[in-house]
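Reopening this one. Same input as before:
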Amino acid sequence: MKYIVAIIQPEKLEEVQAELFKNEIHLMTVSQVLGCGRQKGITQIYRGRKESGTLLKKIKLEIAVNDQFLKPAIDAITKAAKTGNIGDGKIFVLDLEECIRLSTGETGGPAIG
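Same output, byte for byte:
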């Protein structure tokens, strides 16, 4: 079992979800987050003054998958979220030690699906 954390551009969420759905990956948690990376923020004019923001709006996807869904999930996220520009995001893959479905008490891989 793996736990995928993907940070993507907000405008790419629908495309990423559509690609994940094509690969039978429907279970995910989506959060609006702020972050900074190599982009180092943006500069805007606000009320006639130049202001710099170091934190940019991003979307964080958290997806638990069984091992056979790992590559399809990564491929789907990469295909839909990649523009080739700095700031497209990142994908992190972590080992998932255990999963427990609260309603039934199922554990392990069956509890994910």
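So the earlier flakiness isn't reproducible anymore. For the record, The helical segments are 13-22, 70-81, 109-112.
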